Amino acid sequence: MDTTQNNSSSVDEVPARRVEDFETATISLFGTVPDSIVDGPGLRYAVFVQGCSHGCPGCHNPESQPACGGTETRVADVLADIEANGLVHDVTLSGGEPFEQPAACAALAAELKARDYGIWCYTGYLYEDLARRNDEAIKHLLENIDVLVDGPFVEARKSLELKWCGSSNQRLIDVPATRRAGHVVEWQPVTFSLEKPSNW
Questions:
Q1: pLDDT score of 10
Q2: How far apart, in whole angstroms, are the C-alpha atoms of residue 72 and residue 33?
Q3: Do residues 148 and 128 touch, judged by C-beta distance below 8 A?
């Protein structure tokens, strides 16, 4: 996959935010999908936040871009709805732009990780830009993400052959491995090799 990045996706201008208390945190939602099969591997619960400043041409959720218009929801209520769904054990944060509501998303992600949910997150920002931000909420959100799909959607690089991302500049980043290595490690799907036992 081509990993050339558009460096215009900087978060330098975003002021630092603190992590919110889970019990009082609210999140502005564009919507949720309790049984998504397109926002990461397997059956997942997808949380789409409201508000995104990237304005990528060809965005598949253009109605989620305005900061206004979302449904203000208690993060605790989102968690309760996820837990009530007995079919999923993986959650995807998308939007909209989760890193423009990092405190609320971090509060939700931390509670989900404490319950052993797997977490993917889509962002139009670059991992490197997010990782160098002196922002407690952004750092806390990154700490609780398993796979980050980063980079803006670029319509000219759109490909229907890509899995779980829309354009070839976007990366599927294994965040825990990246944090350990100190450089970006791309996520690889688990593969299974079925071999006939030697005694057959």
A1: 46
A2: 17
A3: no
